């Protein structure tokens, strides 16, 4: 979810209301259900999706139905997490790369984090943080994504090989515990003890059910994930796609 969406957040506290399944007469509208035991509901009158699963506190996120074909969603803040993807020095800091889009995303992301804290939404940072074992098991397709031009153009930037030594004290490329793999300072400065941080070694942070991040979502019961970060066509999209498949 783009950071700007949160500019329209409106908190609504209400008692749980009975839902009306499709085909059941009664009430001003027949709500449409999606899913099996774990259901969403769509209200044709309000053009909103209810993802709150009967929660007493509902957070309303509005949308323009002229663009989104719906008018927003209702979520349960207690069952929601904000997933911040790849906001790391390697992808944002000017010493590592030229990424004006990443720098431009910092300020709105900070606003999103602040609003989520106000609503008691869990903030989760998911970043590259590889080890020697990860490199040993890394599929060729993943490593090629980081060094596709390395044969003809050797140097640093977007095309450096994973695990290669970067200039100065930056450390090995996206290795866990290095400066380049650390969270970019403006975001790191606002982290609190309650925030969670998970490493990944693929374009998706949810590619395996054995990953700590995957296990956390299962054990905590977080069902609604809000996404922000950089590399939206790569790691953010990959994690979102796997989240979609896992439910």
Overall spatial form: globular
Low-confidence stretches: 1-27
Count the E strands: 10
Distance between the termini: 16 Å
Q: Give the integer mean of the pLDDT values.
A: 85
Q: What is the structure about, briefly put?
A:
With 247 residues, this protein is of the alpha/beta class. It has helices at 65-68, 89-92, 100-118, 132-137, 140-147, 185-188, 212-220, 235-246, and strands spanning 9-13, 32-34, 40-43, 48-50, 57-62, 72-75, 80-85, 122-128, 196-200, 224-229.
Write the layout of secondary structure elements.
Layout: E1 9-13, E2 32-34, E3 40-43, E4 48-50, E5 57-62, H1 65-68, E6 72-75, E7 80-85, H2 89-92, H3 100-118, E8 122-128, H4 132-137, H5 140-147, H6 185-188, E9 196-200, H7 212-220, E10 224-229, H8 235-246
Parallel strand pairs: 4-6, 7-8, 7-10, 8-9
Antiparallel strand pairs: 1-5, 2-3, 3-4, 5-6
Note down, in words, how this protein is organized.
This protein is an alpha/beta fold. The protein is built from eight helices and ten strands. The strands form two sheets. A six-stranded mixed beta sheet has the order 1-5-6-4-3-2, with no helix packed on it. A four-stranded parallel beta sheet has the order 9-8-7-10, with helices on both faces. A hairpin with a 5-residue loop joins strand 2 and strand 3.
